[in-house]
Amino acid sequence: MLCILAYRLLPYTRMDAIADMQRAIRLLRSRRKEWALGDKLCVMGFSAGGMLSANCATHADEGRPESQDEIERFASRVDAAVIGYGAMSVVSFAKPFGMPVSDPLMGENRRERYYLAPEKHVTCDTPPMFLWQTLSDDGRHSMCLAKALQDAEVPYELHIFQPGLHGLAMADGRNDLGMDLPHVAHWGELCAEWLCDLGF
Amino acid sequence: MLCILAYRLLPYTRMDAIADMQRAIRLLRSRRKEWALGDKLCVMGFSAGGMLSANCATHADEGRPESQDEIERFASRVDAAVIGYGAMSVVSFAKPFGMPVSDPLMGENRRERYYLAPEKHVTCDTPPMFLWQTLSDDGRHSMCLAKALQDAEVPYELHIFQPGLHGLAMADGRNDLGMDLPHVAHWGELCAEWLCDLGF
Fold first, then answer.
1. How many Å apart are CA B25 and CA A10, to the nearest integer?
2. Which of A47, A105, B19, B163 shows the smallest number of beta carbons within 10 Å?
3. Per the structure, how many domains does chain B have?
4. Any chain B CB within 8 A of the CB of A83?
5. The sheet that has B42-46: what strands, in order across it?
């Protein structure tokens, strides 16, 4: 089953968006039988949604069994994450001289920026990830996360396509850019096969 | 036109193999009209051959116009390189304590090891590269070369497939492993499209 998450945008923060996705994961886990869902749960997102998915894949808990709120008793873990053209981090790269990190999307302060950098929170329990992007975005973004996964021996796939632009989604013309790029569109088939191999 | 290079193996060295590929590149350039070759020349290799291709893509010259040997007057530059599961380097990664780098394939001494590490010789004149491997080989090998390409803003594609083993070639069953893995075999189509986009 495919579910679309409508998460909070401005004036809310990325921390609120993470809370929204975590709540949605718990909700799906709590309704598994009622809604006849499969065993496994994968998050998928693009750009800011990709960052959100990477954040939820690297910040998860097993739920609070004592909670009065039944849904909060369920885990916010996911079994896989698909990250399309996420700008992973502002902590792993040098900033241009004299330019502060001022975009609140990347975190309000030092602790939040670090929390929001998925490559800094990969552990041996992090779920497998499928990362893809085009070279119009700096490939070092995906590579810094892929390297963290490799360091922890977490399985992953990484596909960096040379042509294309940020925002291609399925790259089949049905995106904000109106671009149909069959080469980049291979990511969809590759991802479907990857998920299938993982038992989805 | 597709040409197969039979390069020198042991007891010859990797430096000899590079000389063989460079000579072959010059030969093809010198016979371009006679053999009705296209404008562009791409090297492609797998494993040790991938390393060889990466070495030739990062060590090239414009030829020696004054040479008595007509072929040596031609450039050893290539216009693209396709690198399948190359173990790029022994210089970019920490060695296990107490273990010297003793494999002569990786170079006889410090200078040769450095020369044979393609990620250390990428410049703004390095040709575009298509890198692919499976996760059974450490993804950091391709990533360290891809990062060097990104640093120099040289176009590239990078595909790291989760399943599979070293040595899959086209992954269509016609390899030493006898393995037919349609997921990994996508690399061939992706590579053909990438070469086509580059004008091959």
1. 57
2. A105
3. 1
4. no
5. A42-46, A80-84, A129-134, A156-161, B156-161, B129-134, B80-84, B42-46
Tell me, what's the pLDDT at B32?
A: 96
H or E, element range at B56: helix B48-58
Decide if A188 touches B, using CB distance below 8 A.
Answer: no
Residues of chain A in contact with residue B157, where contact means CB-CB under 8 angstroms, are 135, 160-162
Contact B155 A143 (CB under 8 A): no
Task: Kindly state the helix (H) or strand (E) to which residue A110 belongs, with its residue range.
Answer: helix A110-115
Residues of B in contact with A140 (CB under 8 A): 147, 150
Q: How far is B181 from chain A (nearest CA, A)?
A: 11
Kindly report the CATH number assigned to the domain that includes residue B124: 3.40.50.1820
pLDDT attached to residue B26: 98
Q: How far apart are the first and last CA of chain B?
A: 10
Listed as ranges, residues in chain B with pLDDT below 70 are: 99-101
Looking at residue B108, the DSSP 8-state letter turns out to be S
In a domain, B29, yes or no: yes
In a domain? residue A9: no
Q: Is the pLDDT of residue A147 over 70?
A: yes
Domain of residue B158, residue span:
14-92+101-197
Enter the ipTM: 0.88
